[in-house]
Amino acid sequence: MQLRNKKLDMDTFLSERTEVVASWVTGKDVDFEEGVRYQHSLPESKRFSSVLAAADREGRTLRQPRAGVALVDEHIKLLQFLEDACDLLPSTIDAYTRLNHYEKAAEGIARSTAAGTSLLNGFPAVNHGLKECRRVVESLTKPVQVRHGTPDARLLAEITLAAGFTAYEGGGISYNIPYAKKVPLERSLRHWQYCDRLVGFYEERGVRINREPFGPLSGTLVPPFVSHCVAIIEGLLALEQGCKCITLGYGQAGNLVQDIAAIRSLRELANEYFQAAGFTDYQLSTVFHQWMGGFPENEAMAFSVICSGAAAAALAGATKVIVKTPHEASGVPTKEANKQGLEATTQTLNMVREQIFPMSPTLDQEIELIKREVRCVLAKVFELGEGDVAIGTVRAVAAGVLDVPFAPATCNAGKLLPVRDNVGAVRIFDAGRVPLPDDVLTFHRDRVAERAKAEKREASSQMVVDDIYAISKSRLIGRPR
Ligand SMILES: CC[C@H]1O[C@@H](n2cnc3c(N)ncnc32)[C@H](O)[C@@H]1O
């Protein structure tokens, strides 16, 4: 079927659903009507959309960790251990499930059971199936979201939404380009239309499921306009399929003014594009991801990175902050380390929440720059798609118009090269084939030249490499030693 940004009709969806639920043995337990009834039975306190709406009304920044382990009882214990220290809960899905390798996930469950500890890097929800996923939801007092990185997340959605998870992360671009190597973009976009249509069917039955495109993308020096374009496109695609509760995200870059400008411009741009596309009755929120790049091994320094992200999230007015842990440099955190990341974040949020970050010409300039960049790129996306943003996205990625730095996907041009300027803001070192106006490119070039002058070296790819490692080496800007 040719990809188009058009709401899937019932027949198309249902004929595809037969194949989806048959793709693993646990799919047969999913009954949509029963899932709707169960979702309706949940208290508002366990519904992501309600908790997000209240936070936005009150101007609060909610705390959410990532967390997932192989076995259901351990996963429940982990989330119960974390839930008093956060506002929203995850279930981070393991890498095998993300690749639809359910046989390997089954082996991982067996090995974990034998070893008495998790040997998977997340929760294999598809293998555990509806009843066990529901047992997770029943064992908790806070709303639970599925967090993963799955280009084909259809069966995962069927099972977890029927089980009572009330939020679903990802999208056809954001869970392909940064996560997969050879998955055709057209295919993942189409698979995510299915996921969004399923959320739309729940919505039509009065069950509001939150949809959160994966904001940070490669998590490595991604310029705000790049991740904003992807977030807005995935928001538009989700709205088209009937989703109403959208959270758009952005990964901390490190320069405070730029990060605050990023979150504020994201909300304004999303409203601009959603309303221009004719959508008005949606619920929009934002999520700020604490630094997604390399972390210091030193745990005290890791806490500093975590708290810098918490401060930026609160000052930016993000609805939610995704919290890192002091074990980030080593791998899957212990539950204690995960909780410490949350507690450090709480302390910073509590100290910052009553403070207002003042508007300034610099902040205003950053907001306007991001808006101009997003509008230029999205105009090209719509032009390439002859008005269809799904088709336009496929063509724009192929043309290098949409280009995510340091992403593994072979369909991604990878020509855009970012680098920090002399105050640590992420700028463009090489625009590749991204169509930005000359004055914007000059602005970036001048900012990078300021740094080159200060460091008495030419702007180069070495600067980029230095920036990639800088924060893990306890700096923001990768200055020469
Ligand atoms: C998006 C990638 C990030 O998700 C986090 N992550 C992935 N799997 C888990 C996990 N199983 N538990 C806690 N955090 C996790 C980790 O911080 C990683 O950098």
Automatic annotation (TrEMBL):
Q: How does it assemble?
A: Heterotetramer composed of 2 epsilon subunits (GlmE) and 2 sigma subunits (GlmS). GlmE exists as a homodimer and GlmS as a monomer.
The identity of this protein, by name, is: Glutamate mutase epsilon subunit
**Domain of life of the organism encoding this protein:** Bacteria
Gene Ontology terms for molecular function: methylaspartate mutase activity
From which lineage does this chain's organism come?
Answer: Bacteria, Pseudomonadati, Pseudomonadota, Betaproteobacteria, Rhodocyclales
What are the protein's UniProt keywords?
A: Cobalamin, Cobalt, Isomerase
Q: What does this protein do?
A: Catalyzes the carbon skeleton rearrangement of L-glutamate to L-threo-3-methylaspartate ((2S,3S)-3-methylaspartate).
Q: Report the SUPFAM superfamilies cross-referenced here.
A: Cobalamin (vitamin B12)-dependent enzymes (SSF51703)
Q: Which Gene3D superfamilies match?
A: 3.90.970.10, Methylmalonyl-CoA mutase
Annotated HAMAP family: Me_Asp_mutase_E
Q: What class of enzyme is it?
A: isomerase
Task: Give the residues the record marks as binding adenosylcob(III)alamin.
Answer: G68, N121, P178, F295, K324, E328
Q: Which Enzyme Commission number(s) are listed?
A: 5.4.99.1
Q: Which cofactors, by name? A: adenosylcob(III)alamin
**Binding sites annotated in the UniProt record for L-glutamate:** R66, R98, R147, H148, E169, Y175, Y179
State the InterPro entries in the record.
Answer: Cbl-dep_enz_cat, Glu_mut_E, Glu_mut_E_C_dom_sf
Reactions the enzyme catalyzes: (2S,3S)-3-methyl-L-aspartate = L-glutamate
Q: Which gene encodes it?
A: glmE
User: Pathway it belongs to?
Assistant: Amino-acid degradation; L-glutamate degradation via mesaconate pathway; acetate and pyruvate from L-glutamate: step 1/4
